[in-house]
Every structure is written in C-alpha cells, then in structure tokens.
Amino acid sequence: MVGSVMAADLAAGGGFEVTVADRSPAALERMRKHAGDRIRTVQVDLADRDAVVTLVRGADVVLGAAASAIGLQLLRSVIEAGAPYCDISFMPESALELDAEARRRGVTAIVDCGVAPGMSNLLAAASARRLDRAESVAIYVGGLPSERRLPFQYKAAFAPADVLEEYTRPARLVEHGQVVTRAALTEPEFLEFAGIGTLEAFNTDGLRSLLHTLDVPFMKEKTLRYPGHRALMEAFRDAGLFDKTLRSVGSATVRPLDVTSAILFPQWTYGEGEEDLTVMRVIVTGRRGGHAARLSWDLFDRRDPHTGATSMARTTAFPCTIVARLIASGRVRRPGVAAPEALAGDDAIVEHILAEHERRGVMYCLTEEEGSRAACA
Amino acid sequence: MVGSVMAADLAAGGGFEVTVADRSPAALERMRKHAGDRIRTVQVDLADRDAVVTLVRGADVVLGAAASAIGLQLLRSVIEAGAPYCDISFMPESALELDAEARRRGVTAIVDCGVAPGMSNLLAAASARRLDRAESVAIYVGGLPSERRLPFQYKAAFAPADVLEEYTRPARLVEHGQVVTRAALTEPEFLEFAGIGTLEAFNTDGLRSLLHTLDVPFMKEKTLRYPGHRALMEAFRDAGLFDKTLRSVGSATVRPLDVTSAILFPQWTYGEGEEDLTVMRVIVTGRRGGHAARLSWDLFDRRDPHTGATSMARTTAFPCTIVARLIASGRVRRPGVAAPEALAGDDAIVEHILAEHERRGVMYCLTEEEGSRAACA
C-alpha cells in the first residue's frame, strides 16, 4: 500500500534508479502497473538474509516497508550489507538493539520514519527544543474514512490486525517523568478539527522510541476516531470478542479474536476510490522567555484524487522518501539506528522535511501561543 | 426456571395434587429441593406423545412450560389426552392450528399465558373493549437486571438464544389496519418509568396472536432495555456477529452467531441471588363518550427476596397458574386453543386475574385519561 507511493516518489525526477523487491509476484505486478517502466522489480523474500544482502549491497539508499513481523530481520540484513536505510516497517521489537552494529559498520539507519511514528517524533522533539523547558508532549493521530458509516465509522488503511492490537495492548505514557501504563481505549477526550469536526481520542501505545529518547515529564499518544467508535470497540473488547484464548463452539475450536477479525476486516477495507483522510495534532507545552508557551502542529490530509494514493500512503511514504533522499545526498549522515527525533537537532533539516512535504501537498501547520499571543506560522 | 414457581403456586393451599414431569433428573431434583414433599416428580420426555398422554389423562388441569421447540408437540399430546391445558412454552409455530382438534375433543387450551405474551394480550384486549373505539395498542416490556453493568447492561432470565432471535427476526406491526414488517431493534424511543428512570424501547416481533385476534388499526410491541443496549446490539448485528452463515476461520468452520452466543451467554446469566426486574406498559388509546381516551397499564416487579423466585419467573408463572386454577374450577371453559385475549370479554375474569396477581405481590396499575382528566385506579 505504501511501497508503491515510495517507489513513485523516488523515481520522479530521474535522480534514482529504483528497484522494488517483494516476495509476491502479484504485488510486483501491481507496482509495475502503478509506476510503469520507471522502476525495476525483482522477486525476493525480504526475510531471506542472503538474498537481501546481495540485493541491497552498493545501493545509495534502501527504503524498508515490510510486514512488521520481518522488519527487524530486514534491518539486520541491510546493516550487514552496509547500505544506508530508512524504514517504515514498524517492527514490534526495539530496532535500537542493532544500533551498535550499525555504528560499527558506519550505516545510517532511520526507523519508524512514517507519519506517526515518524513526523510525530520529529515535531515533538523539534518543538521541545524551541522551548526553554518542555513540560508536556501530546500526540493525537488517526487515519479515517471520509464517510462515516455505522456501526464502525472506521476503515483501516493498514493491516486491521494491527488496529485491534492497538485496541488491546496496554498504552505506555509518561507522567511526572515516569513511564506509566493504562489500558488501551481509556481516558477518552473530544477534540475539534477544522474541516472535520469533533473527534474522540483515547490511549494507545504509540510513544515507542520517544519513551526513551525525549526527556519531557508528561508525554502521551492517543488515537483519533469518530465519536462512538471507541465505546463500541471497548464493548467488543470487554465482551471478550478480542480474546486470544481458544474456545470450543460446537465441534469447532476457535479464538474469538480470529472470528471477530474474519468478520470485521472485510468491512474495514477501503473500496476502490473510497477517500481516506489523516488527522494529526502534536502539542508541546512548556516555558519560553519566562512565559507559558504552547506549540501545536496540525496535519489534515485527504486522499490524492490525481494519483489515487491514499492519504495514509502519502503521509506515511513521504517522511521516508524525504529522509531517504537526505541520506542518499549525504545531508543526513549519522551512523547507528535511530528514530526521526534524532534529526530534530538540525533546524535546517526539519525545515527541509516540512518544505518537501508541502511540495507534495501534505501541509503541517504550526500554531504558536506564548502568554496570550497566538500565531499560525 | 418458571416451572418450579408454577408448581409451588399450585401446591400452596393444598387444593391440588401436583405432579412435575421433566426429562432431566437434575431438574426434577432441583424441583424437589424447591417444593419438598408437596409435589410428586416423574421423569418423562415431554416430546414423547404416548408417555405424555398416559401421564396427563384424567388431570384436572395441565400446565405447560416446555422448551419452545417441543411446545407444539406437547400441546398436541395434551389435547389428545383430553386434558384442559394452560401453557407458557411460547412455541414458534401458531398453536391455533390445533384449535379445531381441541374443539372436537372439548379441550380448553390457553397458550402464550405468561406476562408478554400473556397479560399483555389480556390487558390490551380488555382495554380496547372499555373504549367505544380503540385506535392503538402499544406494548412495552422488558426483563432487566437491577444492576446496570457495561457493556451490556443486560442479563437474560430466559434462554439467551431467544433474546438474540428477538434482535434479529423482523418485527410485525399493524399500521392502518395492515400488518407491516420492520427490522428488529428499529424505531427506538425513550420512556420514563417510576423507580427505574429512562428505558429505551425498540421493535421486536412480539404481537403474536394479537396480530389476528384484535381488530385495532395501530398495534406495536417493543422490547425495553437500558439505554445503550439497543445500539450495541444493532452494532453487533450489523457487524455480522449474529450471522448464521458458516464461515471459515483458520482451519475451523463456525457460524458467527454460535461463537457470539458462546461468548455472550455466560455473561448474560444471572448469578445466585442477583436481582432481576420486570417492566411492562400497555397503552391503549381511542375514543369514549366523544372524548379521546387513553388507558395505560404499568407493571414494575422485582425478584422476590423471600422465595428467591426471579421476577421473570413470578410474572410469567402467575398468569398461567391463575388461569389454570380458573380452568380447573370450571370458571373458564372454552373448548379450543386460544391466547389470553380470549378471556378479555368477561370483566369478572379479568378482575379476578388482576386480584390474584395482587395477592401474590405482582401489581398492575391502570392509569385512565379521558380528555384532560387522569386517574390511577
């Protein structure tokens, strides 16, 4: 879903010779239809270490958009090949365990480089740097269908199983400098968004690397949905529909989660041409020049009617292609494995990433408030 | 659940020698514990025609409280034995198909003789008779737990499978004298009830015999639940969780309804000593003496703390035992198969049934409004 947008972005302008690798011939066929003769495709199992090492050795930059289950193995292979890397595989493991190995080989690898995690990390860290003292970071993010249809008012632009995982895995937050854990779907709050109205936010486990890299005493990440979805999912979860324990039903033995997934996922799949949108707000508060200050970044993006690329694909692909280009050009050179907040120390890099998003039609709007003043940059 | 309350009611006062028949030794053992040596128990398969005929022949009256699936067969057997009958098996088929046979044999059989169907039919028909012209009948009824616990705010005092059936089977209503069909769970409305607050009513297929026996141009039956339950069940249904179509999940093949039932039913079962309550309102409107008139019957009943009998069991058992006593005493003699509205033509019978309920602590309160006057009888 995202890889084709990344390939098309890299092929545009002719600066790169682009090779797309996938295990699935059908996926490669779709890729050729989408990007035509501007790219080369090759059938490779990305979980196959030797094949990946051979494939990527000598590349100016490698972009990873694999299934999360093979994300860490793919990262390991690319580091072994000594190729610079930028990734949106969102592996469940901590990629930082390969940091020392990447440093040793002089490989720059930026992981979690999508919209959230990704731009959320970069903007949170960059905003915290702009303050004398950052007190809180709040990240609100959601991918939604434009049309709100009951009962779910929701479709998933990425693997729906990962969505249900978000609804069940305990969320880690930072309060008073300590990591605390809350049940997913808890602490609902309503927020207003121009062009869309009221959305409901709730705890999910989305801070990831920020838990360790950013020293701000209060941090939380919440998922945004249309009001009502959260309560329904809470009812499903509390009723036991997401349980992973095997259960006998007549002569069959099933996990409730598998049955619920089989029922829900077809309904959560976007149809051809159906519009999705992406909403994100990153709020950082603190003190600056003796005043209370608040920096708020807003993203509101819709599916591109010209290319047909979903908003999820656009907003996730572009951070990765923009940073990959920075790596390939040598402007970003930072041996080791890091998340995008590692780039927040260089204002010019942050500005470049935002400007490149704007050039692709994805607008991040900053509202700064200090004392009683407010201004949108 | 209901049979033991019926047996205890009949045994009280010593007017009857009571025999309880059931296929299950465990059920009979529970019955003996409950009613002690006042009743006789006998193990009989109520679907076995010969056994039932032998058992009931010569009885002063037979009460039926069987699983709905064998209700019609049981009725057939009792008619064949020539025994008078009063039943709450709520069979899915129309019992009236046995009307001619019962007439031929001179057998009085009153079916659907519980609270709803049952008292609802009797009160609707009796109220319609009190008006010069009845224009509408609305029946609102629900069995609920006293404690409202999320996500369901509901427990089932009878077979939960029948509850899900109510939530899926299309509801038949009468509008402008015509039977019309609406999806279950539709046309929600909020009603206020003293002692409990706001409840939500929605269409279910509960008019049964009234569709054919009562000539009133507008009739509807709605189920009452705590607000929120309806929307959740609608979401479950619309999501496909109540689907009866087989579906492959991994290596297993299951019906979603079976899996959902296996998950929900344990949560919908009343625990030992947990209080249930029964709420019913029957509203009949029309014209009387040149004025608009409105008769409204209210039932609000709780579990009996002394006997431990659930409110559902009490309110369902007593119409049946009271009418059975009327049949046994010869006060009700009406060869054929009929529902309780057939008794509405005799004011003394209706008053007797209400008084006998009152003696057992189940109170039906009538509010009459005519023009601008209102009075609670």
Quick overview of this protein structure:
By secondary structure, chain A is an alpha/beta fold. Helix content of chain A is 33%, strand content 28%.
User: What percentage of the residues of chain A does DSSP assign to strands (E)?
Assistant: 25-35%
Residues in helices of chain A, as a percent range: 25-40%
> What's the total number of strands of chain A?
18
What's the story with the biggest beta sheet of chain A? 8 strands, mixed
Structural class of chain A: alpha/beta
Instruction: Tell me the number of helical segments of chain A per DSSP (H or I, 4 or more residues long).
Output: 12
Backbone shape of chain A: globular
The end-to-end distance of chain A, rounded to whole angstroms, is: 32 Å
Kindly state the mean pLDDT of chain A as a whole number?
94
Which chains share the greatest interface? A-B, 26 and 26 residues
Which spans of chain A have pLDDT < 50 for at least 5 consecutive residues?
none
Quaternary status: homodimer
User: How are the strands ordered across the major sheet of chain A?
Assistant: 9-10-11-6-14-15-17-18
Can you write the helix and strand succession of chain A as a string? HEHEHEHEHEHEHEEEEHEHEEHEEHEHEE
Q: Which radius of gyration of chain A do the C-alpha atoms yield?
A: 21 Å
Account of the protein in words:
The structure is a homodimer of 377-residue chains. With 377 residues, chain A is α/β, with parallel strands linked by helices. Chain A contains twelve helices and 18 strands. In chain A, a hairpin with a 2-residue loop joins β17 (364-370) and β18. The longest helix of chain A has 18 residues, at 311-328. Chain A is globular. At the A-B interface, α9, β12, β13 and α10 of A face α9, β12, β13 and α10 of B.
